[in-house]
Amino acid sequence: MIEDDSGLEQTAPVWAVFGDLMSGLLGAFVLLLVGVMVAQLELATHLEVEVKKRQVEEQRRISLEQALAIPLASGRITLNNGRIGISGRVLFALNSDQLQPEGRQLLNSLVAPLRSYLAARDEMLMVSGFTDDRSIRDGNRQFADNWELSAQRALTVTRTLIDEGMPSSLVFAAAFGSEQPMTPNVDEKARAQNRRVEMAPVPKASPAKKPTDAAH
Questions:
Q1: DSSP-based three-state secondary structure for 196
Q2: What is the pTM of this model?
């Protein structure tokens, strides 16, 4: 309340102040609401992407299982998270990179279904060699260590796949030595599981962009 020159009290603009306060609160509420809606939209988008990604991975797994149905049913290979596993003893003798006849026959049976699968999905095949944790025997001078042994085994499988009809542009080799065991190397049974070769379809690398010609 204020007084004018005549001594009469006048009412302060309370409603104007109240209106300004409500406008400020309403603006803050709107901003908060917009923020919540944006966060919910981002979360919904993220969940949708994850769902689609899992659907794609599941379809990929089913397609690979269908392509390899016969060797999977025979128990000659395993399929785990998209990785095709072959026991080392099926392919090689202990501490050797010379492919055994049974191993060559198995690889030959895998070429056609894998080639069709890779072509349909525009992917390529990574062939990985693994060993157990035991060092190469002292009398074995062919390989310096498990890294070299696993590399030569992966190369042997890769070259055999190419010889049997796999395009060389669709396959490459990798070596892991005793790293990434399937199971702890606690006994001979476990070590036999870790001596293996795995094949995994992977996306092709994006082609490198050609550098633009410099302006003359």
A1: strand
A2: 0.70
